[in-house]
Amino acid sequence: MRTTAPGGADDLGAVRRIRWGSRLPYGFTLEVKTIEVEKHARLRGAATGDLAGTGLWELRRDGAGTRLRYTWTLAVHTLWMRIAAPFMAPVFRWNHEGVMRDGMEGLARRLAGPGSPVRGASAAGCAA
Q: Mind listing the pLDDT tens digit for each residue in 76-127?
């Protein structure tokens, strides 16, 4: 991830270029602009690039930890994927679920910090 445009004090308006790999031999590049910030509660971004739409991160206290819900509403802009989707749907779904699970586990480890146990991480609700 690389910041291509700084945002305000609350990060509103910041733009980040994000490159995702995948379990298949392709990846995605997105430019995500922060369009809504509610500190410690919500973050919304508008994405353009290989996929376009919005991403919403919602956080809430859950006992001694934090529950994070991450929702993307995107359209695929890559022509070959749109053409292949009807035939490759099960493979794309398998790939998506694996990428989301790997990302969730990596985020949980990063947020927990060194020496902290990661508990309760779940990829429930991942859908292509």
A: 888 888 898 899 999 988 988 988 888 888 877 877 776 655 555 555 544 4
Helix, strand, or coil here: 82? helix
pTM of the entire predicted model: 0.76
Is position 91 within any domain? no
Q: What is the dihedral of CA 73, 78, 84, 88, to 10 degrees?
A: -50
Among 12, 84, 8, 3, smallest CA distance to 43 is for 12
Quote the domain boundaries for residue 32: 2-82
> Looking at the domain assignment, is residue 59 inside a domain?
yes
Give the residue among 47, 52, 45, 46 at the shortest CA–CA distance from 78.
52
